Amino acid sequence: MTDAPGEITPDDLDALALRAAAGDRDALEAVLAHVQPRVRRICGRMLLHPEDAEEAAQEALLLVATRIGSFAGRSRFTTWLHAVASNSARTTYRSLKRRSAEHPTDELPVRADPRTTSVIAGSRLDLLEALEVVGADHPELVEPLVLRDVQQLDYNEIATLLEVPLGTVKSRIHAARNAVRPLLRVAD
Length: 188
Prior knowledge:
Order of helices and strands: HHHHHHHH
Domain RNA polymerase sigma factor 70 region 4 type: 143-178
Keywords: DNA-binding, Sigma factor, Transcription, Transcription regulation
Pfam families: Sigma70_r2, Sigma70_r4_2
Domain RNA polymerase sigma-70 region: 34-99
Radius of gyration: 18 Å
Number of strands: 0
Family: Belongs to the sigma-70 factor family. ECF subfamily.
Shape: globular
Number of helices: 8
CATH architecture of the largest domain: Orthogonal Bundle
Largest sheet: none
CATH class of the largest domain: Mainly Alpha
Structural class: mainly alpha
CATH topology of the largest domain: Rna Polymerase Sigma Factor, Chain: A
């Protein structure tokens, strides 16, 4: 551990996560306490409303707690965590979209304007919707794109996490970008 109170190095976090994966409850509690702010940021990058991001973050933390045993240390724990949190945000988006369709209100629908709600601008509604479309036919393209373009992991981390060759990761990201790009265009 480091000398600064509350500060954990990436190597320390990996070791703590491996202890948690082996069944150490105290290590799991320490991991969850340490990663909670990071999980909130990851989910917040993908979801427009703080309440939605918080719902996704809570689900992601629950998944970390229940699936920590699947972390084998082949990649950094934070890489594994990014995948769990990103997938949780996408699942939350799908759930919110389904609930909205099941319980329509009298309020006017809020529509995402891709000119102002882009990956750069901070709202991910347009991107999430495009990922849903692409994922319906090509689910293998979605996770690499999210990990690279939203969560900003490097190609090697993604290859390790997904257990596929580096060339496959690059190819999938390229194909995903090509598939998503026309879905994000705004008609003038």
